[in-house]
Amino acid sequence: MAANKKYTLNSHSGLVLEGGGMRGVFTCGVLDSFMDRGIEFPYAIGVSAGACNGLSYVSHQRGRARFSNIDLLEKYRYIGFRHLLTKRNIMDFDLLFHKFPTEIIPYDYEAYQTSTTHFEMVTTDCITGEACYLHEPRSAERIIDIVKASSSLPFVTPISYVDGRPMLDGGIADSLPVRRAMECGYDNLCLVLTRNSGYRKSGTRSWIPPFAYRRYPALREAIASRNGRYNDDIELVERLEAEGRMLVIRPEKPIAVGRMERDISHLVDLYDEGYAVASKIEFIAQR
Questions:
Q1: For the chain, what percentages of helix, strand and coil (3-state, to nearest 5) are there?
Q2: Is-contact 187 244, C-beta < 8 A?
Q3: How far is the C-alpha of 84 from the C-alpha of 89, rounded, in Å?
């Protein structure tokens, strides 16, 4: 468990944020705890919901991600099949990626640009079926394009475009980008998971309807083989954790929140747990 552990924060420290849809409220709690204590990483990488929550962490907007996932959901009910019927998207992307960052709680692009954290977001290229690790230091429009693509779930949201390339949820190709972080030179990792210890996806391959993504055979293969890759990554994570080479922060209570959860009380409980679990960890700054 992450509780009562110590973590040495140094120039090789990297923060990895798993996705998981609304289970990402656990990550919101973790990151708010970090911000309350002034904990910053030189490098961070986020996938899907992890990318969304990571943006608010990098811009130091404490509570913004919680508001987006809980308060905004309670007011606007931006998840549901009515959106799928009217906009071919199970979520109201117009609200989440346009109105929210520009009007409701404007995103602090200046704070993001001056942050000492190098932040990458993961998408899946529909043409190649491979993960893209994207960093945008200046363009507000491209930042939104990337995070929207990283959050575009297969089958229930439309394909998004970044730099003219069709892209979907980064979790298809790389749900747990720990290898990417290590390849970038960050081998002292802190990983925030949104599943309980011991979780595995069922099987190694998933069935895909024959009519889905026929123009993108590599994407179809990436979706079909995702479960096996995820389980392999979890094996690596557990090995590194057991060897003391990685700090893993994960929910300790049985998860009661689904990917498209709309029960506000369940979301608040999971947020509170994330905050509490992270607050038990002692961070030691290494000069």
A1: 45, 15, 40
A2: no
A3: 4
What is the end-to-end Cα distance of the chain in Å, rounded? 27
Please tell me the distance from the alpha carbon of residue 144 to that of residue 157, in angstroms, as a whole number.
Answer: 16
Q: Are 165 and 130 in contact (CB under 8 A)?
A: no
Distance between CA atoms of residues 227 and 60, nearest Å: 34
CA dist 36 and 241 (Å) reads 25
Q: How far is CA 116 from CA 23, 42, 57, 263, in A?
A: 27, 6, 12, 36
pLDDT digits (tens, 9 = 90+) for 78-124: 999 889 888 889 999 999 999 999 999 999 999 999 999 999 999 99
- Rounded to 5 degrees, φ, ψ at 217 are -60, -35
Rg (CA), the chain: 18
- Residue 244: how many other CB atoms lie within 10 Å: 8
Tokens representing 273 are: 């747990």
Q: Within a 10 A sphere around the Cβ of 45, how many other Cβ atoms?
A: 29
Taking residue 35's Cβ as centre, other Cβ atoms within 10 Å add up to 17
Amino acid identity of 45? I
Strand partners, 43: 14, 118
Q: Are strands 165-169 and 118-125 parallel, antiparallel or unpaired?
A: antiparallel
Global pTM value: 0.96
pLDDT tens-digit profile of 137-171?
A: 999 999 999 999 999 999 999 999 999 999 999 99
**Cα angle, residue 66 at apex, residues 63 and 71 outer, rounded to 5°:** 115
Element (H, E) at 14: strand 13-17
Say if CB 45 and CB 14 are below 8 A apart. yes
Q: Are 66 and 28 in contact (CB under 8 A)?
A: yes
The one-letter code for the residue type at 35 is M
